[in-house]
Structure prediction request, 56 residues.
Amino acid sequence: MITEETKIDRESIVLMIVRKRNEMLTLAERNGLSSNETIACSQELDSLLNNFNKFI
Prediction:
């Protein structure tokens, strides 16, 4: 059952994923795909995506 609270949490995670993805793309353009900053951001994005998958 999807409650209003679940919907808000899910929407929050989606927004965080979009922001983190944009941040990662900016870092990759500026520093390259293999930079430590880009890799760390990618790992944070992976974590957000894993959390999102828990809702599905």
